[in-house]
Design goal:
The chain is of the alpha/beta class. It contains eleven helices and 18 strands. The structure holds ligand FHN. Ligand FHN binds next to loops.
């Protein structure tokens, strides 16, 4: 009996293996296709927005971000102590009394504020749009909101800041997007989470306040092209899928064509940016903050922009810019890379408490602008060129044409720039963008692969070579494949 049992125990695993081997097919082990979830408050569109307003947004290439508010007055320093965190967060750092911070309103008197000068700086840099903080997390409103006392109207300055900015940027032909932090540290109804009945009642009041302020902003500044939301990550707001969705639709109805990114609202399962089916919520992906995608697959076919600080992580004015400060060429390269991957690049400015833009930012705007004056054709209204990236830099393509730009950041010693084209495509002519009369030598080196020759040893800054693709100029040569 015992022996029989032992034998059986040995046979059972073999038997099971045999049965499994015969029953499990390749289909069974293939990844299970996820069922689409029915969502009421998920994304309301799959794919890019095709309208004119969004086409214009897509063509901006380069933008400016402005972080300005009460935090610019301490500029990252409190009672002689420098804080390493982002200067615009100083109210939340340990040892800063909230009420003392809030009373900075009585010191807000930016005598050197000049909206036209800000717009002129953006114009000089080549920015096509600006995103301006109307209210950051501290809750201080740069416009005279009638729904709170915590505004410019009650500061020594008294006047609206947003209106002259919108007017000045509009006049300069630069589109304005209004930044708005939903999280509001000053409002008594704001909660990080809703745990009690009292929280719930307080937050209901806060939601109405938020709605009122957003409608007020769109009514006061009707030329604004979009709303840039922030401070939407806390549990309290993530739980408001229905409210936020309805509010977004109300805002879109009030200003048809308005552009709202993926940061405003979560779906009913609390998923942000991408809904529970993986579809982008909003008009463009707003998650590229202080980082860039590496390859086109990273952006999943969506519109996107990258917002970037000049030092490591300072948006508001910080007297002590520590660590690595990005140079104009680094910022230009980020702009080129963004456009080459179908996005826009937005450089942040943190004006001083007195309203002046710091000299380092003015200098960067000038240097970037000098480069843009010669090369912006390769940035504006350009898109992903669908070409293999090469070591010398980035490709962009003029939207709606066959004109390709090579934005060169690393020059090969032999002066030969490799270009790989898709099958059945050739190059009709190549020239430096700054000197279109000079025709560059094109050498076919294998099927659909070329060297464009440009001896430019004196290059001290990134430059652009252009060429046109031509389906009539495809190779007539037969390249023998190796037999290996
Ligand atoms: O906390 C803010 C930060 O201060 C800054 O405004 C940036 C800009 O994208 N947004 C938040 C962090 O994601």
């Amino acid at each position: 009996m015992k022996k029989n049992q032992q034998r059986l125990l040995k046979i059972i695993p073999l038997l099971l293996l045999f049965i499994y081997g015969n029953c499990v097919t390749a289909q069974d082990i293939a990844p299970v296709k996820k069922e689409k979830i029915n969502l009421v408050h998920g994304a309301h569109r799959d794919g890019k927005r095709p309208d004119e307003a969004m086409k214009k947004w897509r063509g901006y290439g380069l933008g400016q971000f402005i972080h300005w508010g009460l935090y610019a007055i301490p500029g990252g320093e409190w009672n002689g102590k420098t804080y390493n965190g982002a200067a615009e967060w100083i109210r939340s750092w340990d040892g800063i009394p909230k009420s003392t911070y809030d009373s900075l309103i009585y010191k807000f008197n930016p005598v050197n504020f000049d909206a036209k000068a800000w717009a002129a700086t953006a114009k000089q840099m080549g920015a096509k749009y600006v995103t301006i903080t109307t209210k950051h997390h501290d809750g201080f409103c740069l416009w005279p909101s009638k729904y709170t006392d915590y505004t410019v109207a009650n500061s020594p300055w008294k006047k609206d800041i947003i209106k002259p900015l919108v007017d000045a940027y509009d006049a300069a032909g630069i589109d304005v997007i209004l930044y708005f932090s939903v999280m509001d540290w000053n409002h008594p109804g704001w909660r990080y989470d809703i745990k009690t009945e009292a929280d719930s009642i307080a937050f209901e009041g806060f939601k109405q306040f938020t709605r009122n302020q957003l409608i007020e902003l769109l009514t006061l500044y009707p030329t604004a092209k979009g709303l840039w939301f922030d401070g939407t990550w806390d549990k309290s707001w993530v739980k408001q899928a229905a409210f936020a969705d309805e509010l977004e639709q109300e805002l879109r109805k009030l200003r048809p064509g308005i552009i709202i990114g993926s940061r405003f609202r979560a779906d009913e399962y609390g998923k942000r940016h991408f809904d529970s089916n993986g579809v982008l919520i909003g008009d463009y992906e707003q998650g590229w903050e202080r980082k860039l995608p590496e390859k086109i697959a990273d952006v999943h076919g969506n519109d996107w922009d990258c917002v970037m600080t000049v030092p490591e992580n300072q948006w508001g004015y910080n007297k002590a810019w520590k660590g690595h400060i990005k140079t104009a060429f680094e910022l230009i390269e980020m702009t080129a890379k963004s456009v080459s991957l179908g996005g826009n690049f937005v450089m942040n400015f943190g004006p001083q408490g007195d309203g002046a833009i710091r000299k380092e930012e003015l200098q960067l705007a000038k240097e970037i602008g000098d480069w843009m004056k010669v090369n912006s054709e390769a940035i504006y209204n350009c898109e992903y060129a669908v070409l293999d990236k090469q070591d010398w830099g980035y490709f962009t393509k003029k939207t709606g044409s066959n004109k390709i730009y090579m934005l060169v950041f690393n020059t090969p010693i032999n002066g030969k720039y490799r270009v790989k084209l898709p099958a059945k495509m050739g190059i009709s002519m190549a020239a430096p963008l700054s000197n279109p009369g000079v025709k560059l030598k094109i050498e076919e080196i294998k099927a659909n692969e070329y060297f464009i020759e440009f001896n430019n040893p004196s290059a001290k800054q990134p430059f652009v070579i252009t060429f046109e693709t031509d389906t009539d100029k495809k190779s007539n040569q037969n390249y023998e494949k190796a037999k290996t």
